[in-house]
């Protein structure tokens, strides 16, 4: 299985100004904004870490998910949440011939932690040996920062602030996720059972 981002978060969607206020950086100087590229990179790193820990996409992007077999015959958990739209499902054979599946044959089952691609009939379309399914979808809480849940937004600021304070250090302790951040993320983490399969 492979998950690929088809679109990225624009610089304008990142809360650089709010993060600057969070850090209590001075304003009114001739070099105002000089640190903005650093602040943006720290926010992107913190967002990636939070998304990786929780499986939740904070700002909406499009994704391509490729897999070689369905987990269940009639329903397939999607790798991240929340998913707002299934854009296309295609079956590709070993000769790279692609068939786009009619949207009438499946639908999105919403879930806070594990949304599903669900068959509208008895089963999802078959994937031949050596072939794959390609699913494109949109995921994220929204296109702007104010759509992100407050605890996740706070976790990003705390983690990015941690990165800022330790930006000159290379120790393992500097890169570890602080306890306060982990506590904020705990309720958003996906519970995994059955040998690693997500519930």
Description:
This protein is an alpha+beta fold and 199 residues long. The protein folds into 2 domains: 17-56 and 150-198, no CATH class; 61-139, no CATH class. The protein contains 5 helices and 10 strands. The protein has helices at residues 16-22, 36-54, 150-165, 172-175, 179-185, and strands at residues 2-5, 61-67, 75-77, 83-92, 98-100, 106-109, 116-119, 132-139, 192-193, 197-198. The strands form 3 sheets. The protein has a 5-stranded antiparallel sheet, with no helix packed on it. A hairpin with a 3-residue loop joins β9 (192-193) and β10 (197-198). The longest helix is centred in the N-terminal third of the chain and has 19 residues, at 36-54. The relative contact order is 0.20. Mean pLDDT is 89; it is low at 193-199.
Question: Ranges with pLDDT <50 over ≥5 residues?
Answer: 193-199
State the end-to-end CA separation: 17 Å
Q: Give the spatial strand order of the biggest sheet.
A: 1-2-8-4-5
The number of helical elements comes to 5
Say how many strands there are: 10
Task: Tell me which oligomeric state these chains represent.
Answer: single chain
H/E element order: EHHEEEEEEEHHHEE
Overall pLDDT metric: 89
The major beta sheet can be summarized as: 5 strands, antiparallel
Cα radius of gyration in angstroms: 20 Å
Helix/sheet category: alpha+beta
Strand content: 15-25%
Protein name: Gene transfer agent protein
InterPro entries: Phage_CHP, Phage_HK97_gp6-like
Organism: Actibacterium atlanticum
């Amino acid at each position: 299985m492979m998950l690929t981002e088809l679109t990225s978060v624009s610089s304008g969607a990142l809360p650089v100004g709010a993060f600057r206020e969070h850090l209590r950086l001075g304003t009114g100087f001739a070099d105002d904004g000089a640190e903005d590229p650093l602040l943006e990179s720290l926010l992107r790193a913190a967002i990636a870490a939070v998304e990786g820990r929780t499986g939740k996409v904070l700002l909406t992007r499009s994704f391509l998910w490729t897999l070689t077999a369905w987990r269940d015959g009639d329903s397939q958990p999607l790798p991240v949440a929340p998913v707002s739209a299934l854009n296309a499902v295609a079956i590709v054979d070993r000769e790279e011939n692609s068939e786009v599946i009619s949207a009438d044959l499946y639908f999105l089952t919403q879930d806070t932690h594990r949304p599903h691609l669900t068959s509208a009939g008895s089963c999802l379309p078959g994937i031949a040996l050596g072939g794959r399914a390609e699913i494109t979808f949109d995921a994220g809480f929204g296109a702007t920062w104010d759509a992100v849940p407050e605890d996740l937004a706070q976790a990003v600021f705390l983690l990015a602030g941690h990165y800022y304070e330790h930006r000159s250090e290379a120790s393992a302790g500097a890169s570890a996720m602080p306890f306060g951040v982990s506590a904020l993320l705990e309720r958003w983490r996906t519970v995994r059972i059955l040998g690693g399969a997500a519930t």
